[in-house]
Amino acid sequence: MIVVNVNPLYTPRELEHQLNDSGAAAIIIVSNFAHTLGKSGSRKRQYSTLF
């Protein structure tokens, strides 16, 4: 597993690019930033998500 840092202030589009570019399979996210993940196109992918 390779860790990729993501800026919590990314826009949904920036977050989608970061996750797609890195090939992320899992994401650890603080619940108050989960709305950004939900708004990104990456929501179509299946992630292992921890809150």
UniProtKB/TrEMBL annotation:
<keyword id="KW-0436">Ligase</keyword>
<protein>
    <submittedName>
        <fullName>Long-chain-fatty-acid--CoA ligase</fullName>
        <ecNumber>6.2.1.3</ecNumber>
    </submittedName>
</protein>
<dbReference type="GO" id="GO:0004467">
    <property type="term" value="F:long-chain fatty acid-CoA ligase activity"/>
</dbReference>
